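Data deposition worksheet. Section B asks for the primary sequence of the deposited chain exactly as it was used as input, without tags or linkers unless they were present during the calculation. Section C holds the resulting structure in token form. Section D is free text for depositor observations; keep each observation to a single sentence. Incomplete worksheets are returned to the depositor.
Section A, Depositor: J.P.
Section B:
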Amino acid sequence: MATKKENRASAKLLKTEPVQPEGFKWVQLAKLTYEDAEGKERQWEMSMRSTRKGDVDGVAVVCRLLKKGEKPKTVLVSQFRPPANAYVLEVPAGLVDEGETAEQAAIRELKEETGFTATRVTHVSPIVLSDPGVSGDTMQYVTVEVDLDAEENLNPKANPEEGEHIDIHIVEIDSLLSVLQDPTQVVQDRPKVVVDARLFGLALSML
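Section C:
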């Protein structure tokens, strides 16, 4: 059903003024001037990545682990995230390198972070925004299947980048939402654990 909208003008961005704090490598700040739907000029503040190489910043990998005779599982990762001052339970994810497609980035990140080799890509989302209230970051969900019976996945070994300390968690897809209600079921012996909103949204979509 179409949503009824008021007969009014569309808001529009008038000006973007980038601000690059000294010593910042990954993030750039900006002050925005925009005109709202009533024609009033307003200000906004945002962050954006300074590392984007193409149309999209990063990918999030939705993984289905398949093994004959067993229920489908998924692989999650957890790591300490300084902005949250907590360990965060997430899907495998990462930035898209220059010249990469979203599919290639997803396969690479999955291999690096978990050791699993994707058997096939089953879906790629359009480019979506991660947190549009404060950031211009963009991402794509890439859904992959992993054949756990394949030789390359019998003894997976992660190869994270320097400085990445990632724990891997295998969860039955049927139990995912229940696990996320209390992530300490899988992320144990950590002082504080929270769930990435993107992961929780995926779990809700499976209801």
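Section D:
DSSP finds three helices and twelve strands in the chain.
The chain has a mean pLDDT of 93.
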